[in-house]
Amino acid sequence: MGWLTDWRRKRVLEKHRIDETLWKTATAGLDFLPSTPKLRELVLLFLAEKEFTGTHGLRVTDAMRVSIAAQACLPILELGLDWYAGWRGIVVYPGDFRVRRTEVDEDGVVHEWDDELAGEAMPGGPVVLSWDAMTSDPAINVVIHEFAHKLDMLNGAADGVPPLHVGMDRRRWIAAFEEAYEGFCDAVERGKQTWLDPYAAEHLSEFFAVISEAFFREPEETRRHYPDVYDQLRLFYRQG
Ligand SMILES: [Zn+2]
Fold it and tell me: What separation in Å is there between the alpha carbon of 211 and the centre of ligand 1?
């Protein structure tokens, strides 16, 4: 990123800090967040470099900003903020939002429908989040989910394969994920109870985002259910 970014970031860290009470309020209930000072530093930089916008009259408070930033910084704690470079905006809706979808099929017929979303990550663009989905459903973590998509999109398509580090084996990653994904889809199709949200069966990229949520919130369980995927995620997120 160069010396200018380094200098700006150094200044941000010198001049700002997060008030203890604010941090406690913002991260209440987010027990999976590590208490390392490194996370708070990253959050300060994140807040300095990203721009929050509320929609439909929602006022994004400092506590909301810090809460979103803290969760968003967890996946890049060992990677660095440059992994979220190239875009600025985080748009917060009070509740789930509707998006108009269009698709042209092979016969040239245009299909249009509305999707109700809790979050959306656009390639090179903003991350969109529903505050209600963030706070009311403990089974999902919309923030980690959407930011995992952001990492996945860094090398082009959202295909469940983010840019892997030197020394990681792409074939191993794909083999571990495909095996887990196929088994998971099979279980969902047969109507079995699944440990992960059945939404993960939508696409390999959704499986990556959903299991990234699990990896950070319930690492032990993730290792037990999906040891090979867990190993790959541990290498990618540089955890442990
Ligand atoms: Zn998703």
Answer: 11
| CA 181/CA 54 separation, integer angstroms | 35
| The pair of three-digit structure tokens given for residue 43, joined into one six-digit string | 């959050």
SS3 at position 52: strand
pLDDT at 165 over 90: yes
Residue 1: pLDDT band with limits 50, 70, 90? low
149 Cα–ligand 1 center, Å: 7
Q: How far is the C-alpha of 207 from the C-alpha of 21, rounded, in Å?
A: 36
Residue 3 CA, ligand 1 centroid: distance in Å: 35
The DSSP H or E segment spanning 92 is strand 89-93
3-class secondary structure, 16 = coil
In contact, 34 and 40? CB cutoff 8 Å: no
Cross-strand pairs, 51: 89
For residue 106, report the phi and psi dihedrals to the nearest 5 degrees: -65, -20
Q: Binning pLDDT at 50, 70 and 90, where does residue 35 land?
A: very high
Q: What is the pLDDT of residue 157?
A: 85
Question: From CA 37, how far away is CA 30, in angstroms rounded?
Answer: 16
Residue type, 194: T
Region 55-83: mean pLDDT is 97
Mean pLDDT of the chain: 95
Mean pLDDT of 226-231: 98
Q: Residue 142 Cα, ligand 1 centroid: separation in angstroms? A: 8
